[in-house]
Specification:
4-stranded antiparallel β-sheet; about 25% helix; 7-stranded mixed β-sheet; 11 strands; alpha/beta; 8 helices; 2 domains; single chain; Rossmann fold
Length: about 260
């Protein structure tokens, strides 16, 4: 997708992110899990967005820094955090991670996949490991991609068109293209409204499997400690479509 940059997603979705994705999880359960893993903090969330997770996590008493490449997303976070409980950082989730050291670094649901090159994902995991204190953890949350082996071998491209929202004065269509061979996906939400005309909301992602992320973590000096299928700590299995993976840094630190 031409002219798609690191801040494109934020510009496209900041105004609807909380409306569309605010009920992604039982937030109270997720925050309880993360607060336990944070072990008193401090915490850094990469791709913090509007503060959906960071603000309630900070309310548990831990210091939280949130990094995001989108000024639009961070403006929403600041507006929703009048007590300034989260420290926002405008920057890249690879090159601009604060020095820490942190007890936990969080990369929430599918955020790692916003880095659309495998090496950038690996660099993100490596840099995050270097910003952890001894014994700290990196938490990565994402879908488990469904990959058809014959499709991958053939370099198959899968197109999908669906309806996200349909009401009397608005229609939102989802159009996506999945490149199975390269694990790339890109698409548009196309919003038609009676008074506002047409609005395009582009997105782009590169999916990595849990095995691929495990390899990135191992190379960064991290060991897989837990893997669940949900914030409720459901057991992960071969049929799970989501994973929450907790990688622990040993007492000697990252290489």
């Amino acid at each position: 997708m031409d002219r798609y940059g690191s801040d494109t997603y934020g510009r496209s979705f900041a105004d609807v992110y909380d409306e569309w994705y605010g009920d992604l999880d039982d937030l109270a359960v997720l925050i309880e899990l993360l607060a336990e893993l944070a072990d008193g903090g401090p915490v850094c969330e990469l791709g913090v967005g509007t503060g959906r997770i960071a603000i309630p996590l900070a309310a548990t008493g831990v210091d939280v820094i949130g990094v995001d490449a989108s000024s639009e997303m961070l403006a929403r976070l600041v507006a929703q955090d009048p007590l300034a409980t989260v420290t926002p950082v405008l920057g890249d989730m690879v090159d601009d991670i604060p020095t820490g050291p942190f007890s936990m670094i969080l990369i929430a649901f599918n955020t790692l996949f916003n880095l659309t090159e495998p090496q950038r994902q690996a660099d993100c995991v490596k840099t995050a490991a270097q910003r952890l204190r001894a014994g700290g953890c990196l938490v990565i949350d994402g879908i488990v991609p469904e990959v058809h082996e014959m499709g991958v071998a053939a370099g198959l491209v899968v197109d999908d068109v669906s309806i996200r929202e349909l009401c009397i004065d608005k229609v939102v269509l989802s159009i996506a293209r999945h490149h199975l061979e390269t694990q790339m996906a890109e698409g548009q939400f196309i919003e038609f409204t009676e008074t506002g005309g047409v609005r395009l909301r582009p997105w782009k992602a590169r999916y990595s499997s849990p095995d691929e992320i495990d390899a990135m973590a191992h190379a960064a000096g991290l060991a897989l400690e837990y893997r669940w299928a949900s914030p409720e700590r459901a057991a992960f299995s071969a049929t799970s479509r989501r994973h929450i993976s907790v990688y622990r840094l040993g007492s000697t630190g990252a290489p």
